[in-house]
């Protein structure tokens, strides 16, 4: 899948040309969520390619390791745009933004949630074939955007869902299952990324719901994000009244 509350869903993710980056709107529907940005990779790839100098050594190495042109374009658009958004938020040059990773909250390894040291801003980014989604927030946040899975693949992938999600998906009309599955998956990845564990834990352990609305979470505000046709997306922000270490799923496996 892609990189890296029953609350009212945020407004549709904003698309803009990077030259208008300062005019991006600020969604208010989820407390703590400051900004959502989404963009088509083809629309922004050329400009991002002209800003390779904004990436740090680690990002440049990761970019060079990607073999497919479409993967390189998506990675470049995501990371160049993230640096520009963070730079605007922090009042510094994009190439001066320092990006580090917290220890994984699951295993302690150096692959936890990315962060800007010493700064009061949290962020998350996701990219898939042709689309990028980025969020900035005042509290831990996670986003995910995915292309809709093929109908033929839904049955093969359902084992990765919580049993209750699988049961919910089973009663969805066949033609609607690709969207329902992908929507559920983006909710799941958004929560897991926000918590800092990502897919280092079994996705089936976290219940987010496969229905029309996300299931309420103990520690997270979770909402679907409107995006381009052919994609599904979600965003999760830590509830203001939850302890930073509270990452429990809403419903455990029975």
Structure description:
The chain is 29% helix and 18% strand. It is built from 6 helices and 8 strands; from the N terminus they run βαααβββββαααββ. The chain starts with 32 loop residues before the first strand and ends in a 16-residue tail after the last strand.
The residue ranges in which pLDDT falls below 50 over 5 or more consecutive positions are: 5-28, 245-254
DSSP helical segment count: 6
The SS-based structural class is alpha+beta
Round the Cα radius of gyration to an integer and report it.
17 Å
Tags for this model:
globular; alpha+beta; single chain
Can you give me a brief rundown of this structure?
The protein is an alpha+beta fold. It contains six helices and eight strands, in the order βαααβββββαααββ.
Question: Could you outline the blueprint of secondary structure elements for this entry?
Answer:
Elements: E1 33-40, H1 41-49, H2 57-65, H3 69-90, E2 100-101, E3 114-115, E4 122-128, E5 131-137, E6 141-147, H4 151-157, H5 163-170, H6 177-195, E7 220-224, E8 231-238
Antiparallel strand pairs: 1-5, 2-3, 4-5, 6-8, 7-8
Helix pairs in contact: 1-3
């Amino acid at each position: 899948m892609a990189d890296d509350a029953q609350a009212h869903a945020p407004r549709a993710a904003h698309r803009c040309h990077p030259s208008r980056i300062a005019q991006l709107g600020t969604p208010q529907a989820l407390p703590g969520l400051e900004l959502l940005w989404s963009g088509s990779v083809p629309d922004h790839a050329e400009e991002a390619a002209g800003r390779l100098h904004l990436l740090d050594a680690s990002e440049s190495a990761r970019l060079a390791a990607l073999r497919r042109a479409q993967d390189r374009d998506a990675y470049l658009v995501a990371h160049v745009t993230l640096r520009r958004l963070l730079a605007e938020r922090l009042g510094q040059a994009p190439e001066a933004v320092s990006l580090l990773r917290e220890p994984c909250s699951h295993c302690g390894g150096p692959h936890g949630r990315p962060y800007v040291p010493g700064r009061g801003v949290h962020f998350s980014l996701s990219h898939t074939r042709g689309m990028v989604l980025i969020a900035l927030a005042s509290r831990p946040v996670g986003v995910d955007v995915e292309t809709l899975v093929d109908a033929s693949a839904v049955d093969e992938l359902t084992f990765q869902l919580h049993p209750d999600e699988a049961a919910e998906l089973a009663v969805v009309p066949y033609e609607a299952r690709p969207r329902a599955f992908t929507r559920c998956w983006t909710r799941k990845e958004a929560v897991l990324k926000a918590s800092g564990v990502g897919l280092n834990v079994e996705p089936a352990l976290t219940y987010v719901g496969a229905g029309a609305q996300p299931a309420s979470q103990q520690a997270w505000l979770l909402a679907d994000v409107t995006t381009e046709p052919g994609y599904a997306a979600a965003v999760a922000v830590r509830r203001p009244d939850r302890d930073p270490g509270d990452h429990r799923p809403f419903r455990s496996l029975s």
